[in-house]
Amino acid sequence: MEANEMAIFQIISLAGDSRSLAFEALRCARKGDFDQAREKLEEARKSSVQVHQIQTKMLTEEAQGEKTEVSLLMVHAQDHLMTSMLARDLIEELVQMLEEKGGNDK
After folding, report:
1. Is 79 a known ligand-binding residue?
2. Residue 76 among the catalytic residues
3. pLDDT digit string (tens) for 57-84?
4. The domain that contains 41 carries what CATH number?
C-alpha cells in the first residue's frame, strides 16, 4: 500500500474513533456521568488532532508540488473527517447543555 493510501485509511480510522468517542460521551452525559463524558470528549479531541496532523501533512505536500490523486477513497475519508468534527462539536454543546440543565432528566 502506498503512503497516500495509508494516510487516507488513517484519516478514516481516526475520524471514526473520534466520532464514536463523542457519541460515547453523549451517552455518559445522558446518564449524568459528566466526568466520564468529558474524558471521552478529550479522547475524541486527541483523535481529531491526529487526523488534523495527517491532513495538514498531505496539504503541505500538495502545496509543495506533490499532487495528491483525488479518489473516491479520499473523498470518503474527508467525508468521515468532516462529519466526525461536526458530531464532536455538537455533542460538546449537548453535554454542556445537559450538565447545565442538571444532568439526568430521566
Report:
1. yes
2. yes
3. 999 999 999 888 889 999 999 999 999 9
4. 1.20.58.80
